[in-house]
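User: Sequence in, structure out. Go.
Assistant: Echoing your sequence, followed by the structure tokens.
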Amino acid sequence: MTETPTALVTGATSGIGRAAALKLARDGFKVLVHGRDTERGAAVVKEIENAGGSAEFLAADLTDVQAIRELAVAAGGVDVLVNNAGFSWFGPSAELEPEKYDALFDANVRSAYYLTAAIAPKMAERGRGSIINLGSMVGQIGLAGSAAYSATKAALAALTRSWAAEYSPRGVRVNTIAPGPAYTGGAAADRIATLGKTTLLSRAAQAEEIGDVIAFLASPAAGYITGAVVPVDGGRTAV
């Protein structure tokens, strides 16, 4: 009997994380739904189970390194790790307070770093695994008002390349997905719609369209892709 593969998706209680969790569950993964809100986490688990899938909610504060390590232990043998959790901040650079700057890097970069550091070596020992980091088009292009946020996403792309060099020779693929504007329920819909008009497809993405590409990178169909930054931005960075 084939063992059911396990996927851990951080920040999976809403937006892109939720969309990825639902898609991975449909693809046959047991999904570990990470978040901080127990009620929202339970709702995603129930949605997956009602569709015939398997899921479990794991709560953890990813700004706490010890909590990250405890999450890795609770997750056990993970076949796919999706580093999705984080947040954005937009505004004049001079208005970003040091506390918010530190919070951005803790949530978007440090959390992914230490969770990967805890999980990737175990994947490498088993000789298989896929890690998908949630980057952004702003990690590759300049956007006024997003200097610090862009820097966090560029950092994830750099980590992806180094982790691929470190772990891919032992069977662990590491990639970044770089979405463009997407409706996630977070940023204001009118702002997302305006950004969407700057893409070659003249629209923003739905969260499910991003989740589908995450699931592709997790699948055997992407078995020869590692160390890559995959744009899912409607062509915005192509020009």
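User: And one key feature?
Assistant: The chain has a mean pLDDT of 96.
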